[in-house]
Specification:
The structure is a homodimer of 142-residue chains.
Chain A (H helix, E strand, L loop, with lengths): L13 E7 L2 H11 L9 H7 L11 H15 L5 E11 L8 E12 L4 E9 L5 E11 L2
Antiparallel strand pairs in A: 1-3, 2-5, 3-4, 4-5
Chain lengths: 142, 142
């Protein structure tokens, strides 16, 4: 876990990590959130409702977005992170169980009066397709 | 699970539900996301880093935000939901294990050319304090 302090962080600095999405993660997310929508477990429903655009159930967008928690809490800034807000989260392409996602974050700006950093983050799949993007504000506690 | 179709949905329509946050949910979120930041399990660290403002570990903001998945996928519109994006998510007050959160969503607008609804959502705790707010765009698939 990184332990960057506010003064250590440079505009333009980047961090990244990769993670494989599994059906077990999807099941745990369903238990936590209570989001029992069939798009996220029923392959036949996903094929039907998407007119064949999806060939299987689709991962929860907010499970992909849970990686924004990780990028802040473990990588940038790491230990002294406190998430303030998002200016934007978009979901651009579907994620499926088995996909390997790579999260790439860049420090876009710093606000010295609030000890706050702005991250621009993209999440790409194993085919280099962007599946989600976000602009995130994080308070650095030290 | 609601099964609103796009044509059924009225601007101003509201949906709400409540859920209790537990330490088990926090542990599962940690496993899924890989966010092992001590703020979310180590009471002593949370007290120290917040200068006593927090008396115990703080729930992951993105675990609270996973309820935005549920409001779309189960309540508004329910079955035919596909999350498009968020214009904003903010975290306004800390959430702790044991808190009972109430999610209140209102249809702020509709975009007929995209079959897209705009929700304004607030999440409040058992003391009626707003802990998170969001503006969410959802495609209604039927």
């Amino acid at each position: 876990m990184n332990q960057y302090r506010y003064a250590d962080i440079q505009i333009g600095q980047t961090e990244s990590f990769s993670i494989k999405i599994t059906q077990d993660m999807e099941n745990k997310f369903r238990e936590i959130s209570g989001d029992v929508n069939p798009l996220h477990f029923d392959d036949n429903y996903a094929i039907e409702v998407s007119n064949g655009k999806y060939q299987q159930h689709v991962c929860f967008g907010m499970l992909t977005a849970s990686l924004y928690s990780t990028v802040a809490g473990v990588y940038m800034p790491g230990k002294y992170s406190l998430i303030h807000s998002f200016d934007e989260i978009s979901f651009l392409n579907p994620v499926f169980a088995g996909d390997v996602l790579t999260v790439e974050a860049k420090v876009a700006n710093k606000n010295d009066s609030l000890n706050l950093i702005n991250l621009k983050i993209a999440i790409k799949n194993q085919n280099n397709k962007t599946v989600s993007k976000a602009k995130m504000k994080i308070i650095v506690l030290k």
